[in-house]
Each structure stands twice: as structure tokens, then as C-alpha cells.
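re: that chain from earlier
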Amino acid sequence: KMACAKACALLAVAAAPWVARGEDANPLNKVIQLMDDLSAKVVAEGEAAAKAFKEYEAWCDDASHNAKFAIEDATKQKAKLEAQIGELSSDIEVAVSRIEKLAGSTASAEADLKNATLI
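^ sequence. v structure.
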């Protein structure tokens, strides 16, 4: 019984500084508090990162859809412009043919005029 009493007294003396300083002075409690604080900080940073990622993902989706529509519109416009180029090329060929015909008529008329003035 004496050994038990000595051990209890020794434990009481050893624990006295922590009890006198309060619960926060206990190193284990301090470590637990620091871990809780770190855990809360990590969770908050994780939530902020998840929110930022969702915003970025939404922006990427919007940009992708906008690019898709822009490509579709440009492809449609390209087809229209190519058709217009084909029509205008045909008009050019007709105009060149008519110019050549008129040039031939002019040359013939000039030759007739020259012959008429010689007579």
C-alpha cells in the first residue's frame, strides 16, 4: 500500500504543473488543437479549390460551346462564299466571252469602216 501511495503522490507531483497551467498547457491537447486547426484549414482550402475548379470547368464548357458554334457558323459561311465564288467565276467567264465577242465585232466594224473610207 505504501508503494501505491508513493506512486500516486509522485504522479500528482508530476502532473501538477499541467494542472496548474490549465488544460491548454497539456502538450497532447495542444497537438490535437493544432491538428484540428490544420484540418479545418485544409478542408476550407479544398472547398475553395473545388469551387474554383467548378468555375473553371464551367468557363471551359462555355468556351467550348462558343467555339463549336463559331466553327459551325464559319463552315456555313465558307460554303456560301465558295458557292458565290463559283457563281462569280461563271459570270467572269461569260463576261470575258462577251468582251471577246464585242472586241471581234469592233474589229470587224473598224475594218468595214476602213474599207468604206477607201472606196
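The radius of gyration is 48 Å.
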